[in-house]
Amino acid sequence: MKLRMKPEDFIVEEIVDFNKISGDRCYLYKLTKRNIECLKAFSYISKKFKIPLRDIGYCGLKDRHALTTQYISIPKKYGKLSLDEPNLKLELVGESKFLLLGDLEGNRFTITVRGLKKDDIPKIKENLKYLEFGAPNYFDSQRFGSVFDKKFIAKEVIKGNYEEAVKILLTKYKKSEKKIIKDLKRFIAKNWGDWDKVWKYIKENNIKARLYVNMVKELKKSNDYKKALSYVDDRLKKIFVAAYQSYLWNECIKELLNKYIPEEDRVYYEYECGTFMFYKKMDIEVFDTLKDKKFPTIAPDIEYGGDEKKIIEEILKREGITMEDLNNIGGLGRFIYNERKILSVPKNLKIGEFEEDELNKGKYKITLSYELEKGSYATIIIKRAFLGVKTKKRKR
After folding, report:
1. Tag placement on the chain: N or C end, fewer CB within 10 Å?
2. pLDDT of 7-51, one tens digit each?
């Protein structure tokens, strides 16, 4: 199976409650973008219309490799704006308050899955029969861009492994990163600890990336890995902490579901951080018990009780850390308490027919559309729907 062969294969439409966002401070715009990263789109609008980024309000960030529609607010003092370019469109739709992340209700997805083999269709049909029972509401791969070789920067800091945390930051890279940064990280990996040599490389290649320049400069001066981490900006720090907290939550949900799902109905799926456990089907009584139930994130300043406490203690034990250890996060921030639904259940689910795939000769495609509450990942539903079908990752 193949995902996102073209942006129109992954359509995302933001759902907002217009009554909740009503107001007269800002103009409300519908932003449609194709194959553009969200923050880059905001930055482009900011520069084009000379509007500070902080004055662009939004409810959520949308996928880059997709065709997406969302709402943004801009104070009226900047006038009425309009934009109509091939991959970016801005339409005035009314008035609103200044939008914030919490204003999002959910998202509507229309996803076309391609490259399906004829032999896989019976298996997929069986999976789709139970899709109304949803899937575990896991945080998916998009949450774990800072994780390499299943190592979490936040966990390394918690355990006092500052050098390892810095090593991940300065030597690991994604294919999508700029060549000059990938070359720098390769050089640092080969010359780890020789900070004079690395500093010389930075100067000779006129590297301007502030994070890497400042960290290497500090290491050249003091060889203090904890100090070097202080140069990471707040946005990245939050990402590192959120990644590890999200992984711990995923592990808690797996542990919880093991009590409800018989072994014969469990299916496992490998991802960047470990293994997801999905269920083939779910007893209706179990579904009714879990469908609206929430499970908390792990935070050291919260007192847990009952089954929640037992599950959390078990997961932390496996990780080789204690609840108290979570306070040893250095300057990265803190673990924030939240509650998240255990299951992600698609609403207004529509399943298309299997059709010949015009982009993959001899293969088939199918389109699914559904709505999810904010914070739930459309890709988790897709993984659930196509369990047992080999995925070919999209080339980027």
Report:
1. C
2. 999 999 999 999 999 999 999 999 999 999 998 999 999 999 999
pLDDT at res. 330: 77
Give the range of the structural domain holding residue 169, as residue numbers without chain letter: 155-234
Looking at the structure, do residues 25 and 98 belong to the same domain, yes or no?
yes
Asked, for residue 382, whether it belongs to a domain, the answer is no
Q: Is residue 119 flagged as an active site residue?
A: no
Q: Please pick, among 17, 24, 55, 63, the residue that the annotation labels catalytic.
A: 63
Across the range 250-269, mean pLDDT stands at 95
The CATH number assigned to the domain holding 33 equals 3.30.70.3160
Residues 6+ apart with CB under 8 A from 139: 246, 247, 249, 250, 377
pLDDT in tens, 79-101: 999 999 999 999 999 999 999 98
Spatial neighbors of 87 by CB under 8 A, at least 6 apart, are: 33, 34, 35, 36
Alpha-carbon span 91 to 94, nearest angstrom: 9
